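[Automated response] Your request has been received and processed.

Submitted sequence:
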Amino acid sequence: MRLYRFKREKTISFHNFGDMQVYVCLLSDIKGELHPGLSIVTSASIFEVPYPLSKPEAISFAASIRAAANGTVPFKVTLKGSYANMFTSTSISFTRIEDNQLKARFFHGIFIFGQYGWTTMQPGSVLICANSIENLVWD
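Generated structure:
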């Protein structure tokens, strides 16, 4: 049984950012066709939320998290919900760099209902995630 219209089929890379896990992957739709995107799961949920990405969306998201990793803070980036994931959105607000750790506040949910949390990330890990997103292949 599917909860969302997409599900993770092939993982290209996995990134653990404390309470948030990000899979750069290929997502399959209900017809079985593969689409590049992200799948995000937080520590308070058992459901992975899929975000199929177009090439411009992926490049924009990768550039945004790369800017935060390079020290442009505060910086906020949002993956908007759509019909594909039952309108679940994920917002990450990079707040500061402290002790070579990128501090971020995140929201993962629908409208105002969901999980709010804080997480820390290594700037290098965020850059690796951005590279993985940029290396996704579109037909």
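Summary generated for your ticket: Residues 62 and 133 are 6 Å apart (CA to CA). The mean pLDDT is 88.
If you did not submit this request, please reply to this message.
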